[in-house]
Design brief:
eight-stranded parallel sheet, 13% strand, alpha/beta, 13 helices, TIM Barrel
């Protein structure tokens, strides 16, 4: 069967076949899912938010064994994060009432202490990640949060491309001025960290603000209809997360994949309770009860010191009621497990059909 042709300027910039980028979704977007999307013709992106330097290097090596195609690595660049030796990096520096709430929550819901721990997210941690990415000359660096302006020159000197995710036109303009290769505009429909602005309203405004830098659309895009709509709004491609979670290659636990298949479009919520930044997840007891407590979430990454033990214990004990994972509002469209390659293939085929011959030729010309 002849593969459909659907090319935009994004394909030329990234040397990929189709204008579809895997969102770097933390642990979910591991080497297997990253390579599967790249091998299928899109750009796979490793979610490296919690990977320390050595683990990140090992994950990049694994991707290179699984694919010869271009791929990216996504990390977070939160602002105002202290270094290891600076104040407010220890649990004892944080408000005790937040930890008391977490303790009572665990007792109330019979939640044991987790066996695992997340790494301490400090400025030094994030800096080491960038050093590994630059040293290993990853084809594409993606900042899932924050502006990577300070790294653009070094990345370009190594032949790398740089992209970042923005949630409003103010941030889009800053990224345009920083000389990024690609900007992703992500609306509030998205899972994980997102915007206060709806995707359909954000994308055309962000396209204008980014020009002449190519803009990629994100938030609530799960099939060819969403891809076609994004192209019609002026985007050159899409950044897709939730649709790739319910795949064999995704690294989220099985109980979270089952929660995705059960959820409807009304079963997500936005809260700061998980990371300190607004993020959309499937409705869960931790976020609901934290929001109802009247406590103010701590800035990122400090809120994670409070929520991480809860989230880890939920995963270890398969407690979907406590935490079911991040997901966008299109989660109601996810009703079966499919290989990542099939998700991408069906998205391209449907968009190719919708666009029609005249518009398709315009897309191919970029």
């Amino acid at each position: 069967m002849t593969r459909p042709v659907l090319r935009t300027v994004l394909c030329d910039i990234l040397d990929i076949e189709y204008p579809i980028i895997l969102a770097g979704m933390g642990e979910a977007s591991g080497p297997e899912l990253t390579a599967a999307v790249s091998n299928a013709g899109g750009l796979g992106v490793l979610g490296a938010a919690l990977l320390g330097g050595d683990d990140l290097a090992a994950a990049i090596d694994k991707i290179r064994k699984l694919t010869s195609k271009p791929f990216g690595v996504d990390t977070l660049l939160p602002s105002s994060v202290p270094g290891e030796g600076e104040v407010r990096t220890k649990r004892s520096d944080l408000p005790t009432k937040h930890f008391e709430f977490a303790k009572q929550f665990k007792e109330r819901h019979d939640l044991p202490e987790p066996h695992n721990r997340w790494p301490r997210l400090s400025k030094d941690f994030f800096t080491k990640q960038l050093e590994v990415i630059l040293d290993m000359r990853v084809p594409v660096y993606a900042a899932g949060l924050g502006n990577p302006a300070a790294f653009v020159k070094d990345a370009h000197a190594r032949g790398m491309k740089v992209m970042a995710v923005a949630g409003n036109t103010k941030h889009v303009r800053r990224m345009r001025e920083a000389g990024l290769d690609i900007i992703v505009a992500q609306g509030t429909d998205a899972g994980g960290h997102n915007s206060r602005i709806g995707t359909m309203a954000l994308i055309p405004q962000a396209v204008d603000a980014a020009a002449p830098i190519p803009l990629v659309a994100a938030g609530g895009i799960a099939d060819g209809r969403g891809l076609a709509a994004a192209l019609a709004l002026g985007a050159c491609g899409v950044w897709v997360g939730t649709a790739f979670l319910a795949t064999p290659e995704s690294k989220i636990p099985q109980y979270q994949k089952e929660a995705l298949l059960r959820a409807s479009e009304e079963d997500t919520m936005v809260s700061r309770a998980l990371t300190g930044k607004p993020s959309r997840s499937i409705k869960n007891l931790w976020s609901e009860e934290f929001e109802a407590s009247g406590l103010q979430a701590m800035p990122m990454p400090f809120q994670g010191m409070i929520s991480a033990p809860i989230m880890l214990a939920a995963e270890e004990n398969q407690r979907a009621d406590v935490f079911s994972g991040f997901a966008g509002q299109i989660v109601g469209m996810i009703n079966e497990m499919r290989p990542a390659a099939k998700v991408l293939e069906e998205m391209v085929t449907q968009a190719h059909h919708i666009l029609g011959e005249e518009l398709r030729q315009r897309v191919e010309l970029g």
